[in-house]
């Protein structure tokens, strides 16, 4: 799609959706809309309700003093009676027609039906450029089982685990012995630690499986990996250059057992240390591994790779970086790791968004 260099570029910010992460998406979208450069971009919010109705809002004013917060954003895409009564199919068709007139779409969608390749496929069919990862990387990155398979096939170290499909409730004794305790029980296709339980006794497994299956019928039971938790962000520039940001270490207070939803978004005592205190050789290695993950999954635009630094078994003091998870659409809230990493790396939030949009417009999808 050609872009008129003399006019502000039309950006649709797509947010909401029927996943568990609706609220996180709204928080992220408010930050994105507020930070986009008004001199260069005109912004139209498009909200997907929890019921999957798509609502195209009015263009956000270009005045620098315009107040953009979550309440304003939701009001601009309010559920008017005529819109709320619209069928899902009709609302999607009308929204896609509006999106096709945009220069670029910025999906700020987390979880299933937004981060898993479904919306990306729709945007591909509409022939409109969009920020972030394509269909394959989004789908593969959302499914923890498939992510592990792809990364392990390329020689990257991942945590051992077993996948239980719908109806599977038992883990045999040999597998229990191999995994040991504790284990983490996770929905295989969900984010933000929804439905995740740390299991210290096998007698608690059934309850953990039940909780995980509230988010996904496929569940991952994964060996706990001891060690420091470090995240690395990868950013693609319009010319294809890949850069990894300063490593971020997640430091939990003693009262928090693991980095769950509450720790991510509700606990002020959780500390992000940027840059993490690592020796330069380890930092360089993490950068290399994060970019390798980006390429293995055929990512575009952005990726966050979460590592555990597992101590070497020989007691030498060295560590083995273990890929825990990837995030193909990282959170964009004020507390989120991805924008904080790049701010520490010298890229302000507004400039980060501009780079992501320019990369999307330059991409040959």
From TrEMBL:
Residue intervals of the ATP-grasp domain: 148-358
Pfam families membership: Dala_Dala_lig_C, Dala_Dala_lig_N
HAMAP family hit by this protein: Dala_Dala_lig (MF_00047)
Function: Cell wall formation.
The keyword Magnesium appears for this protein: yes
Principal subcellular localisation of the protein: cytoplasm
PANTHER family in UniProt: D-ALANINE--D-ALANINE LIGASE, D-ALANINE--D-ALANINE LIGASE A
Broad class of enzyme this protein falls into: ligase
Assigned EC number: 6.3.2.4
Gene3D superfamilies on file: 3.40.50.20, ATP-grasp fold, A domain, ATP-grasp fold, B domain
UniProt subcellular location: Cytoplasm
Family statement drawn from the similarity comment of this UniProt entry: Belongs to the D-alanine--D-alanine ligase family.
Cofactor(s) the protein requires to work: Mg(2+); Mn(2+)
Keywords: ATP-binding, Cell shape, Cell wall biogenesis/degradation, Cytoplasm, Ligase, Magnesium, Manganese, Metal-binding, Nucleotide-binding, Peptidoglycan synthesis
Coiled-coil portions: none
Protein name (Swiss-Prot/TrEMBL): D-alanine--D-alanine ligase
Signal sequence, renumbered to the chain: none
Catalytic function, reaction form: 2 D-alanine + ATP = D-alanyl-D-alanine + ADP + phosphate + H(+)
Cytoplasm recorded as keyword: yes
GO molecular function, one term: ligase activity
Pathway(s) where this gene product acts: Cell wall biogenesis; peptidoglycan biosynthesis
């Amino acid at each position: 799609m050609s872009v008129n260099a003399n006019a502000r570029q039309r950006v649709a910010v797509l947010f909401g959706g029927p996943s568990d992460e609706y609220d996180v998406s709204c928080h992220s979208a408010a930050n994105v809309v507020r930070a986009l450069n008004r001199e260069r971009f005109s912004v139209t919010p498009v909200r997907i309700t929890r019921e999957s109705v798509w609502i195209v809002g009015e263009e956000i004013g270009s005045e620098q003093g315009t107040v953009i917060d979550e309440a304003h954003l939701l009001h601009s895409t309010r559920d008017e009676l005529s819109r709320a009564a619209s069928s899902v199919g009709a609302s999607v068709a009308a929204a896609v027609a509006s999106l096709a007139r945009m220069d670029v779409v910025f999906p700020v969608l987390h979880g299933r039906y937004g981060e898993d390749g479904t919306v990306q496929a729709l945007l591909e069919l509409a022939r409109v450029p969009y920020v972030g990862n394509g269909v394959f990387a989004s789908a593969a990155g959302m499914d923890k089982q498939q992510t592990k398979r792809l990364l392990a096939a390329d020689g990257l170290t991942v945590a051992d685990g077993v996948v239980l499909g719908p109806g599977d409730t038992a883990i045999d004794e040999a597998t229990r012995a191999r995994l040991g305790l504790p284990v983490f029980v996770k929905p295989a296709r969900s984010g933000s630690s929804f439905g995740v339980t740390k299991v210290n006794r096998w007698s608690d497994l059934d309850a953990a499986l039940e909780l995980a299956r509230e988010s996904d019928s496929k569940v991952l039971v994964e060996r706990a990996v001891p060690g420091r938790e470090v995240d690395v962000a990868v950013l693609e520039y319009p010319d294809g250059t890949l850069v990894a940001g300063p490593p971020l270490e997640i430091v939990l207070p003693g009262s928090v057992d693991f980095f769950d939803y509450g720790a991510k978004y509700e606990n002020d005592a959780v500390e992000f240390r940027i840059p993490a205190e690592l020796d330069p050789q380890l930092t360089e290695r993490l950068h290399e591994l994060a970019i390798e993950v980006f390429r293995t999954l055929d990512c575009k635009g952005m990726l966050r790779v979460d590592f555990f630094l597992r101590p070497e078994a020989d007691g030498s003091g060295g560590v083995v970086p273990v890929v825990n998870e990837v995030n193909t659409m990282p959170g964009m809230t004020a507390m989120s790791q991805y924008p904080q990493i790049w701010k520490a790396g010298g890229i302000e939030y507004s400039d980060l968004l501009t780079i992501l949009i320019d990369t999307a417009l330059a991409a040959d999808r």
